Automatic annotation (TrEMBL):
SUPFAM superfamilies (UniProt xref): Radical SAM enzymes (SSF102114)
Subcellular location: Cytoplasm
Upper classification of the organism: Bacteria, Pseudomonadati, Pseudomonadota, Alphaproteobacteria, Acetobacterales
Protein name per the record: tRNA-2-methylthio-N(6)-dimethylallyladenosine synthase
MTTase N-terminal domain ranges (all copies): 8-128
Its biological purpose: Catalyzes the methylthiolation of N6-(dimethylallyl)adenosine (i(6)A), leading to the formation of 2-methylthio-N6-(dimethylallyl)adenosine (ms(2)i(6)A) at position 37 in tRNAs that read codons beginning with uridine.
């Protein structure tokens, strides 16, 4: 049985980070030889995989409410003489495997992120097992060595995991416990997979890792390679127009990587670089290993080598011990650096992490208010960045049809979703995967409207938050 003649239907739902999205694709790849093809939705599936996230409390609560709904579906299928395999994968499976089987005994499989290559064997074991089949060890063999080559095309923009796990142990974070210690895939494996993705139609690849810029590997003749060198290699792949990488840690932003942003045209002028806080005291309590000024310096250097670079970040409001002055320091850092996009979260205590048992927890109402203040400032900066793009021309990668008739969807160099009308002379056919020049006509809260300029030469890049600040 091959992937082209599916007998059984598989539905995968992903929460959490982009690595879970990538992993979901790899789970589909590994199940294809067993006869599983994509289902339209949960209702017509023979197997459902919930790929979960444990990063904040709300993320894992979602799993249990979803499981409650699926139980009804599973029972109905069984009463009709059918069968529905329910699997829980991802970081909640890793952290709370026992709790899942206790609270939801109807779950058939529980597997952590390091066990996906074992899925076929686990599926085979279900009928023999009396309870759920569980795999939450960190297997000695590396899962990447045992996963098949990716078979499911991802489209024009693709993810490629190059690094997994984390040894940084930030006070608040579950990732080192759910994903295990840092591991880098080999340069050869990454280049091979990137070529394969391009052959399947990818024009933009985002390299993924919990600490992607900690990636290191062996190049030809045993020379040590870092991410900067790997990016240079990937930029050589014909047809690969754009490269990105995420998520990075400020501590691993080495000089070569900063310089790469000025030297590799395919490397897009957008970088997600989480800082979490602008207070040195809180950064130390978080075990981040850098100060606020280190972050400011990295931003300066990036703006120097790539003046049109736009920065993005993550912030946590109300980490234990955070005073009003610490919070103000975060607002100050946001004002100094200016972000094109950012994510901010209320501190959420996670079982097993040091911050969860710290005595100086911040009151809920205070956390709420601080989060609102951070978000208001970030929102203003995002709006200002998007507005500054209006009237300028930029390269757009067309990713497919837009939501409305006659519309295309695409992406700007700064990761903004873009949409515009297909011009009659171009038509939508053949447009997907093309890089076109477009003028930005309007900025909406989370996207840009553009007008195609055909194949004219690229215009100047949009004003970045940095340039806008300098002009003010
Ligand atoms: N590896 C990345 C981030 C991984 S988690 C880094 O080092 O920055 C994604 C984001 O979730 C984090 O950047 C952080 O802002 C947020 N986060 C993680 N744990 C959290 C917690 N306990 N409460 C609130 N936000 C959290
Ligand atoms: Fe979590 Fe910190 Fe590791 Fe990022 S660097 S994954 S925040 S422990
Ligand atoms: Fe969530 Fe695990 Fe990613 S906790 S953010 S799915 S690494």
């Amino acid at each position: 049985m091959t992937a082209s003649t599916p007998r059984k239907r598989l539905f995968i739902r992903s929460w959490g980070c982009q690595m879970n999205v990538y992993d979901s694709g790899r789970m589909a790849d590994v199940l294809a030889p067993l006869g599983y093809g994509p289902a339209e939705g949960p209702e017509d599936a023979d197997m459902i995989v919930l790929n979960t996230c444990h990063i904040r409390e709300k993320a894992s609560e979602k799993l249990f409410s979803e499981l409650g709904r699926l139980r009804v579906l599973k029972l109905a299928k069984e009463q009709a003489g059918g069968r529905l395999v329910l699997a829980v994968a991802g970081c909640v499976a890793q952290a709370e495997g026992a709790e899942i089987t206790a609270r939801a005994p109807y779950v058939d499989l529980v597997l952590g992120p390091q066990s996906y290559h074992r899925l076929p064997e686990m599926v085979a074991r279900i009928s023999r097992a009396s309870g759920a089949v569980i795999e939450t060890d960190f297997p000695v063999e590396q899962k990447f060595d045992f996963l098949p080559d990716s078979t499911t095309p991802q489209g024009v923009t693709a993810f490629l995991t190059i690094q997994e796990g984390c040894d940084k142990f930030c006070s608040f974070c579950v990732v080192p416990y759910t994903r295990g210690s840092e591991f880098s895939r080999s340069a050869a494996a990454v280049v091979k997979e990137a070529r394969h993705l391009v052959a399947q139609g990818a024009r933009e690849i985002a390299l993924l890792g919990q600490n992607v810029n900690a990636w290191h590997g062996e190049g030809p003749e045993g020379r040590p390679w870092t991410l900067a060198r790997l990016l240079l290699e990937l930029a050589e792949i014909p047809g690969l127009a754009r490269l990105r990488y995420t998520t990075s840690h400020p501590r691993d932003m080495d000089e070569a990587l900063i310089a790469a942003h000025g030297a590799i045209p395919q490397l897009m002028p957008f970088l997600h670089l989480p800082v979490q806080s602008g207070s040195d005291r809180i950064l130390a309590a978080m075990n981040r290993g850098h100060r606020a000024d280190d972050y400011r310096r990295i931003a300066e250097k990036l703006y120097a080598v790539r003046p049109d670079i736009a920065l993005s970040s993550d912030f946590i409001a109300g980490h234990p011990g955070e005073s009003e002055a610490d919070h103000q320091a975060t607002l100050k850092l946001i004002e100094d650096v200016r972000f094109a996009l950012a994510y901010s979260f209320k501190y959420s205590p996670r079982p097993g992490t040091p911050a969860a048992t710290a005595v100086a927890q911040v009151e809920e109402t205070v956390k709420d208010r601080r989060l609102q203040e951070i978000q208001a400032l970030l929102r203003d900066q995002q709006d200002a960045f998007n507005r500054a793009c209006v009237g300028r021309s930029c390269a757009v990668l067309i990713t497919g049809a837009g939501r409305h008739a006659g519309q295309f969807a695409g992406r700007s160099p700064w990761l903004q979703p873009v949409h515009g009308l297909v011009s009659p002379d171009l038509g939508l056919t053949g447009l997907t995967g093309q890089m076109v020049t477009a003028v930005v006509t309007a900025a909406l809260p989370n996207s840009l409207s553009v007008r195609l300029e055909g194949n004219e030469a690229l215009g100047p890049p949009a004003q970045t938050p940095r340039q806008e600040k300098a002009a003010a």
